[in-house]
Amino acid sequence: MSDAGLPSRVQRFITSHIDSLEKLEVLLLLRARAEREWTASAVSLELRITESSAAARLADLTARRLLVDDGATPPAYRYSPASSEDVQAVTELAAVYAAKRVSVISFIFSRPLDKVRGFADAFVLKKDKDGGHG
Question: Which among 100, 102, 80 has a CA at the least distance from the CA of 90?
Fold first, then answer.
């Protein structure tokens, strides 16, 4: 376990696939009810989020090969990770989220700040570099 109190596999999975609490909730909902197919409308009602947001999260998780869709219009989605590594990571993530919800949420929300810092640092470095040439 790291400083965040989360197993490294869970941290890697979140870093690679989860950029919002909503996306996590959608993934865990479909995992918990893997026998069912879910439309964006059904997910939005279950999680009390907008249908457009549910559709965006479902499409993103499908692109990440964590869900599959039936190809219909509107599509219905099912939990079906492409790799056994992802199955294990999501299983571990679900258990950690149930036990340490605040730690998982904190880890998710700490990521954008790191990206913003990196983006800002790129400009500082560029400015310093350009300043040295002038």
Answer: 80
Distance (Å, rounded) from C-alpha 78 to C-alpha 46?
A: 15
What whole-number distance in Å separates Cα of residue 57 and Cα of residue 43?
A: 10
Q: Which residue matches tokens 């999260």?
A: 57
Nearest-angstrom CA–CA distance, 19 and 38: 21
| Tens-digit pLDDT string for the chain (134 aa) | 444 689 999 999 999 999 999 999 999 999 999 999 999 999 999 999 999 999 999 999 999 999 999 999 999 999 999 999 999 999 999 999 999 999 999 999 987 555 555 555 555 444 444 455 54
Look at residue 67 and give its three-state secondary structure: strand
Q: Determine contact, residues 8/81, Cβ cutoff 8 Å.
A: no
**Joined tokens for residue 27:** 């993934």
